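[Discussion] Sanity-checking designs against the backbone

I'm trying to build intuition for which residues belong where. Below is a structure token string of 167 positions. I'd appreciate it if someone posts a full sequence so I can compare it with mine line by line.
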């Protein structure tokens, strides 16, 4: 129970969740984004229909059971979005200026309903921006693995982030 007077100013130092500034990205680190995300049938059906993707591999159980994988697959765009999204709080929350693009996106193994997606990121490259003082470009490689450690997705992404002195 607090002994502070009601409505009295709190003297503690505030700490706000944020991502990394350009200088803080460490190319020797492997950033593990936790917790993982267990993907449900509802996630897959909602995302697939929300994005107007009518692919039967995501929506039609009976048809999918007769196909190569024997079951529905999680929409790969959901996998990509969730894998990258899991990195935001740790890497870019409040420090990103812009997502510049993806150079490579690969899905070497399917993700299924009930699988848990674990995401991690490594820094491939970083450089100060030549045209935007106080900002830098960081190239990240995101990897998504299922609960068995099998890689289900990788993506190389470039982001423009703030430098510490300009924040």
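Best answer:
Here's mine. Compare freely.
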């Amino acid at each position: 129970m607090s002994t502070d007077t009601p409505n009295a100013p709190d003297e503690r130092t505030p700490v706000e969740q944020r991502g990394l500034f350009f200088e803080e990205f460490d190319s020797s680190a492997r950033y593990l984004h936790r917790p993982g995300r267990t993907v449900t049938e509802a996630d897959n059906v909602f995302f697939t229909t929300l994005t107007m993707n009518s692919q039967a591999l995501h929506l039609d159980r009976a048809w999918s059971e007769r196909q190569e994988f024997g079951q529905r697959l999680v929409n790969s765009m959901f996998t990509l979005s969730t894998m990258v999204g899991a990195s935001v709080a740790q890497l870019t929350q409040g420090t990103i200026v812009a997502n510049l693009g993806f150079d490579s996106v690969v899905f070497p193994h399917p993700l299924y309903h009930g699988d848990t997606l674990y995401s991690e990121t490594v820094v491939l490259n970083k450089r100060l921006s030549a045209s935007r003082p106080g900002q830098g470009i960081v190239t990240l490689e995101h990897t998504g693995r299922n609960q068995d450690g099998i890689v289900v997705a990788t993506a190389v992404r470039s982001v423009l982030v703030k430098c510490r002195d300009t924040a």
